[in-house]
């Protein structure tokens, strides 16, 4: 691994560690009710962000090595379109719903950050990408700390802090694009391949929305069936467990560049995948042991039940990471519909099973549902990959 990749990995780990380190501060500072309400707000802007993102980061990964003028012109069209549409939706919803309209600003900011960092990463500007992501986390944390310490830790001030940091991040991203993505800035907008882009991205977008349903619909079920207090306890467990998911996404982002290059050169990826699996499992085991030791020192007593759930959620994220690795093949082969299919099936199963399990087993019902649908996802993805390999000449 090159020095720039190692430095990017370090920056990404620090970047993701910052929100993780904020979990005890936020949870301990806020009332259970407010923490639960915040989780529903966050889930709302995440799904809107997925719609705005439209799976375009997948299109970037699949087409970066293609014809440059077409690539740059398409990216420019996408960026201008999402900014315009998001601003219109914000203004319309502000008149109708006032406070909740902020989800569009926050979602747009996060989407621009994701797309810009993806482009920089594929251009091998890894350090710049890492610094941008780290800076955004620092801005977010600073905004929260200033707001909470100067005012109070209410739900309204938590959302205000998110909105303020999103505006600052938006400005940072635009400045970064202007300076480091000049080919895109100066490109002529190209619309002739819009249909092709839409057909490629639509399945990815649908897959992202389905993934959101699998990961977030439980929060709405828990709030409706059990209340905001139980939602807050579950959310802390989920956030602690999702650290593993964040780490595996970082590792996969770094691996993804070499994966596409290796596949284009017809090199087998089996050994690299085995190394990834061993790395993920080792980290998961160490992480679970660490949290079990330090939990009582960093969380107040009202969250003690969160410790009962998070280990099982970590195991679920390990299973999900295997599916993420398999999805690299689908993206390389431009078979985004395969991702859409297996994610849609498992998400639909999750949506149907989860409320029944929660009514019968409480929060453990969510965990049981996650195991069922995650195993289903990995089985379906392997079957689909096998079918694609049998029809072509790909070396896995």
Q: What integer is the average pLDDT?
A: 90
Number of domains: 2
Write the H/E string, N to C: HHHHHHHHHHHHHH
Amount of helix: over 70%
Give the low-confidence spans. Answer: none
Measured distance between first and last alpha carbons: 22 Å
Tally of alpha and pi helices: 14
Observed structural traits:
about 400 residues, mainly alpha, about 85% helix
In short:
The chain has 396 residues and is mainly α. The chain has helices spanning 3-29, 32-53, 56-63, 68-97, 102-122, 126-150, 155-180, 182-185, 194-225, 228-264, 270-298, 307-332, 336-361, 363-391.
Describe the structure.
The protein is mostly helical. It has two domains: 1-191, no CATH class; 193-391, no CATH class. The chain contains 14 helices and no strands. Helix 3 (56-63) runs parallel beside helix 5, helix 6 (126-150) runs antiparallel to helix 7 (155-180) and helix 9 packs antiparallel against helix 10 (228-264). The chain is globular, with a radius of gyration of 21 Å. The model has no long low-confidence stretch (mean pLDDT 90).
């Amino acid at each position: 691994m090159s020095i720039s990749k190692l430095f990017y990995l370090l920056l990404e780990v620090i970047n993701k560690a910052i929100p993780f380190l904020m979990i005890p501060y936020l949870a301990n500072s806020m009332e259970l009710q407010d923490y639960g309400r915040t989780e529903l707000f966050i889930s709302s802007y995440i799904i809107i962000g997925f719609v705005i993102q439209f799976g375009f980061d997948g299109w970037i990964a699949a087409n970066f090595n293609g014809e440059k003028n077409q690539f740059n012109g398409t990216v420019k069209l996408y960026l201008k379109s999402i900014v315009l549409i998001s601003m219109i939706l914000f203004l319309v919803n502000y008149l109708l719903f006032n406070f909740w309209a902020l989800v569009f600003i926050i979602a747009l900011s996060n989407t621009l950050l994701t797309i810009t960092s993806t482009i920089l990463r594929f251009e091998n500007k890894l350090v710049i990408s890492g610094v941008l992501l780290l800076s955004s986390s620092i801005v977010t944390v600073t905004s929260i700390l200033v707001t909470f310490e100067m005012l109070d830790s209410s739900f309204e001030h938590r959302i205000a802090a998110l909105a303020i940091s999103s505006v600052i991040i938006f400005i940072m991203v635009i400045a970064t694009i202007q300076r480091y993505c000049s080919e895109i800035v100066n490109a002529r907008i190209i619309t002739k391949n819009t249909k092709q882009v839409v057909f490629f991205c639509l399945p990815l977008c649908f897959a992202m929305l389905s993934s959101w349903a699998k990961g977030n619909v439980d929060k709405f079920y828990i709030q409706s069936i059990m209340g905001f207090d139980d939602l807050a306890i579950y959310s802390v467990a989920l956030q602690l467990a999702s650290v593993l998911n964040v780490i595996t996404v970082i590792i996969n982002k770094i691996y993804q560049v070499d994966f596409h290059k290796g596949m284009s050169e017809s090199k087998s990826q089996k050994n690299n995948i085995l190394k990834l699996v061993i790395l993920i499992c080792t980290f998961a085991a160490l992480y679970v042991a660490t949290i079990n030791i330090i939990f009582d020192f960093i969380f107040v007593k009202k969250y003690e039940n969160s410790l009962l759930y998070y280990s099982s959620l970590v195991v679920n994220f390990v299973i999900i990471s295997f599916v993420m690795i398999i999805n690299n093949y689908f993206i390389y082969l431009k078979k985004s519909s395969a991702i859409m299919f297996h994610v849609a099936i498992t998400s639909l199963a999750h949506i149907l099973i989860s409320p029944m399990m929660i009514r019968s087993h409480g929060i453990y019902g969510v965990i049981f549902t996650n195991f069922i649908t995650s195993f289903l996802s990995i089985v379906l993805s392997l079957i689909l990959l096998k079918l694609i390999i049998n029809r072509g000449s790909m070396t896995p």
